[in-house]
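Schema walkthrough. Field components (list of strings):
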Amino acid sequence: MLKVKDGDLDKLGLLFERYHRRLYHFFYRLTHRRDVSEDLVQGVFERILKYRNTYTDNGSFATWIFQIARNLHIDHYREHKKEKQTDHFTDWEQLEGTNLESEQEQQESEELKLLQQAMDELEDTKKQTLILSRYQGFKYKEIADIMDCTESAVKVRIYRAIREMEAHINKLKRDQL
Amino acid sequence: MIEEQYIDLVTAYLDGSITQEQRVLLDELIDEGDIDILDIKQMEKLYNQLGQLQDSQPTNQLRDNFYAMLENERQASQKASKIITRLTRFFTVRRIQFWGAAAAIFLVGMLAGNLLTPFRNYRHQMNHLSSQVSKMREVMMLNLLDASSPSDRLKAVNISTDIKSADDQVIEALLKTLNNDPNVNVRLASIEALVRHANNPKARQGLVEAISKQTSPQIQVALADAMEALQEKKSIDDLEKLLHQKQLDSNVRDKLQHTIAALKS
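Field assembly_structure (string):
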C-alpha cells in the first residue's frame, strides 16, 4: 500500500486480487445483493485511491481496508435508508430446488433457512461484528480497531448476537408449529 | 443461561482463541454448574452453522470495472505528472529570475502609468478647456468688432489681448480694425493688441504697412512707439516716407526722427 501511496498504482492491482473476494463476501453477507456488493467493493478501491495519501503504516492493512469497507456500508445504508437495506433476498428456491434426498438434509436446509432469517434480523453493528469474526477471521482486537470500539464491546456484541439469533430461531420454530 | 461475566471465556471458546488457563477455568465453571455445558454447546453449534450459510462469488464484471477505474486513474495521474514536470521546467532558477525581472518591470510600468495617467488626463482636459475658451473669445471678439458701438469694438480689441495664440483670422481682424475703424481709441487699442501678438509675422508686417495709411497723429506716434518697442527695422523706410510728408504734425515729426534714429542705432 505504501507503494500505491508513492504513486505506483499497479500495486493496487495486487491488493485488489488479495482482498476483493473477502470484501465482496463481507458486503454480500450484509446486503444479500450481488450487484450492490460489487459496487461497494469497487467503492472501497476508489476510496483507497482517493485517500491513499492518508494511509499510514501504523496498523495492519487488512484492518484499514475493512474500516473503509465498514464506513462505505454505513454511507450506503444511510443513502438507501428508505429502501429495505437487507432485502432478505436469499436464494431459497435454489436451495429448495436441489434434490434433497433425505429427511435429514431437508431438516438441515430448514435450519439454515431459519439461521439466515435470524441473522438478517440482527441489528447492523452486531451483524458486522459477527461477520468479521465468523467469516473474515479477524481477532477480537482487530475487530475492535475496525469497529472503533473496545475489545470487550466486540465480545459482548458477539455473545449477544448469538443469543438473539437463538431466541429468534426458537420463536420461528414455535411459529411454525 | 450463561452469565455475561463469562463472556470473555465463551467468546474465546467460540473462535478457538481460548488459552490453556481459560480452558481450565471454563471446565471448572462447567463442573461447578456455573456454566451450562448444553448452553455453550448450543452456542458453539450455531456459531459453526453460520459457516454453512449460503455465499456468493463476485462476477468478472467486478474485476473489469476495477481495472478500468485503475487505468483511468493512471492516465489522470500521468497527465498530472506531465503538467507538474512542465511547471518544474518552466520554473527553473534562471527562468524565475528572468520572469521575476520582467514582472517587476511590468509592475513598475503599470504603477507609473497609473500614477501619471490622472495628471495626463487633467492636463489634457485643461488644454482642451483652454482651447475652447480661446475659441469662444475669438468668436466673441470677431462679432464685437462688427458692432456699431465704439465701446463694443474696444471691448473686442481688449478681448483679443487675452487670446494667447491668436490665429491669422484674429490678426487680420485686428489689422482691418487698425486701418479702417473710424474711432481713434479703437485703432490705438488695436495697435496695442497687435504688438502683443508681434510674434506673428503677419501682425508685424501689418503694423509696418499701416504706417503709410494712418493720418491721425496719435496713431502715427503709437505706431512709431510700437516699431521702436518691437525693434522692427523693416519699418524704417515707411517711417522715413511718412517723415517727408509736408502736412505732418511737428510732434509726430520729432517722434519719427527719434524712432528712426533708435532703429538705426
